[in-house]
Write a structure and sequence with these properties.
It is a single chain. The chain has eight helices and twelve strands. It has helices at 2-14, 47-51, 57-60, 63-97, 114-130, 142-152, 228-243, 280-297; strands at residues 101-106, 156-166, 169-176, 181-185, 188-192, 198-199, 210-213, 248-253, 260-265, 272-275, 303-305, 313-315. The longest helix is centred in the first third of the chain and has 35 residues, at 63-97. It folds into three domains: 48-96, no CATH class; 99-176, Ubiquitin-like (UB roll) (Roll), CATH 3.10.20; 181-315, Rossmann fold (3-Layer(aba) Sandwich), CATH 3.40.50. The chain is α/β, with parallel strands linked by helices.
């Protein structure tokens, strides 16, 4: 037994001692900051300090580390410059589409004072102020703009957006209504275009034909003062009368009706009553015959009613 136990003791003495922590008197503990971590630069290199803009690292960096650092700086600068260029282009496009000021142009050769143009410009600016999102040209609502401007200025038929007039400036073209007749209601004068819309401000030459409205109907500027059929009848009647060598002096709408008119011819002292339900050509033909008939007899009636085909009713 003693022999075997002695052999075991000798074999234990031959084994090297186990490693153990001896505290401050032993080897220095590892610092967590100096321990190897995945994805980090190995301790002892300068690449990490170069990427963190450590100026002292450039002195100890190897040529390869310097090359990688310069490549990293170039990529960073390239991204910065690309972002600046994109931002500048975006800002330029925004300002190009932005309507900061308005330039008014007219579609007519008639002379328009600068004061009137400024009034229209202020009206458009007021609309854009009330609708700030429409200051971008591509977002402008043309129908809404036209309704707003026509309500304020009935003499304008439409407003169309033109091209750019400069940096943050946009050109607008104003289309004016051209009157075909001058419509007089009591002491107020209205101009009426071919669509029957009335307005009180005219930039063109005043029409030669005046319609005196005694029907008693009240009108509002900017609304249809007469139907397109009525104005078409008046226009065709004037054309036929002129084609027969006569000219119209005045057209009157009698009281209590809107389907007949009294036409006064120049150099003829009595008026003619015409109906808008009958073609103007036949009525003008009857009118010419009546004028010749009364001229031969030297008679002067108070009026002549030619609304019925082939017949003339008159009163002396």
């Amino acid at each position: 037994m003693g022999l075997f136990s002695k052999g075991k003791q000798e074999s234990k003495k031959a084994l090297p001692p186990r490693r153990r922590n001896v505290g401050n008197s032993g080897t220095q503990r590892y610092n967590n900051n100096s321990a190897f971590r995945s994805g980090r630069t190995m301790a002892g290199t300068t690449m990490y300090r170069l990427n963190n803009s450590d100026r002292s690292a450039i002195k100890t960096a190897t040529p390869r580390e310097k090359m990688h650092h310069l490549e990293h700086v170039r990529k960073r600068l390239a991204w910065i410059f690309t972002g600046l260029i994109v931002a500048c282009i975006g800002l330029a496009l925004f300002l190009w589409q932005f309507i900061a000021s308005v330039v008014i142009e007219s579609n007519t050769a008639a002379v328009i004072s600068q004061d009137n143009l400024d009034v229209y410009s202020k009206s458009i600016q007021k609309y854009l102020t009330n609708n700030p999102t429409e200051r971008l040209r591509f977002n402008l609502n043309h129908n809404s703009l036209n309704e707003y401007i026509i309500k304020l200025h009935p003499e304008i038929s439409s407003v169309s957006k033109g091209d750019s007039a400069g940096f943050t400036k946009t050109r607008f073209t104003v289309n004016f209504r051209k009157p075909v007749v001058l419509w007089q209601v009591d002491s107020v004068k209205y101009f009426v275009d071919a669509n029957g819309v009335s307005f009180t401000k005219n930039i063109y030459e005043n029409p030669k034909v005046t319609i005196v409205d005694n029907s008693g109907v009240r009108y509002t500027p900017g609304t249809a003062i007469a139907s397109a059929r009525f104005l078409s009848f008046v226009g065709r009647s004037i054309g036929v009368i002129q084609s027969r060598g006569m000219s119209v002096n005045k057209i009157t709408i009698p009281a209590g009706t809107s389907r007949q008119v009294e036409v006064l011819i120049n150099d003829v002292p009595y008026p003619f009553i015409l109906s808008i339900d009958r073609l103007p050509g036949g009525q003008v033909e009857d009118m010419q015959r009546v004028i010749e008939y009364f001229a031969r007899g030297g008679r002067l009636p108070k009026y002549v009613d030619i609304r019925v085909k082939g017949k003339a009713f008159y009163r002396e």
